[in-house]
Specification:
The protein is mostly beta strands. The chain has an 11-stranded mixed beta barrel with strand order 1-6-5-4-3-2-11-10-9-8-7. The chain has one helix at 2-12; strands spanning 16-19, 36-43, 52-62, 68-77, 80-91, 96-103, 113-116, 122-131, 134-144, 149-157, 165-175. The protein has one domain: Calycin beta-barrel core domain (Lipocalin, Beta Barrel). It has 1 helix and 11 strands, in the order αβββββββββββ. The longest helix has 11 residues, at 2-12.
């Protein structure tokens, strides 16, 4: 359940993130800022997920010095309430984005690689975990449709990314 919830959290908000185009800058993080994002998602039975529903509500703001985007998430995951904090930033010197995720009650923050397309419409979070002696890749894709809607899906691969199995999908819309 913990792994499943973390995969979901990567979809909604989600360490080193590499920009696909050097012209991207911190302003792209503004995609999440303002209003309240309300969503729903459905997970399926797979080797790394169980059928379940998730309903997140996310509010994002810039930090006072406009350095970090901070997202506070209230999630209902299959009837279990969860709280999450996501932090995004951009380093002009390297042209890289960074993401940090903190789960209430967890000792260790999570992190993942994030690639953002040059137009900012697609964000791809990726990570690799060692599970039962096997390397498993996970990815979550956020596909923005305009400024107020995002579709997401999560997948895993056990063969080095040759094939991917979907674990869940959903959408979020911004209420202003």
């Amino acid at each position: 359940m913990k792994l499943l919830s973390r995969m979901f959290l990567l979809s909604a908000c989600c360490l080193p993130m590499t920009a696909a185009d050097a012209s991207l800058n911190a302003d792209i993080l503004n995609r999440w800022v303002g209003g309240k994002w309300v969503g729903d998602g459905q997970f399926v039975d797979s080797a790394f997920s169980k059928a379940n529903k998730a309903s997140p509500t996310t509010k994002c703001v810039w930090s006072p010095d406009h350095v970090f985007v901070i997202c506070d998430q209230d999630i209902n995951f299959g009837g279990t309430p969860m709280r999450e904090l996501s932090i995004y930033t951009f380093t002009p010197k390297t042209g890289k984005f960074y993401f940090y995720g903190v789960s209430l009650g967890e000792e260790t923050p999570r992190h993942t690689t994030l690639d953002i397309t040059d137009n900012g419409d697609r964000w791809l979070y990726t990570s690799t975990n060692e599970i039962s002696g096997k390397s498993v890749e996970f990815r979550t894709t956020n596909q923005f449709h305009g400024n107020d809607a995002v579709e997401w899906w999560t997948e895993f691969s056990t063969d080095g990314g040759k094939t991917w199995t979907k674990t869940g999908a959903g959408k979020e819309t911004r209420e202003k």
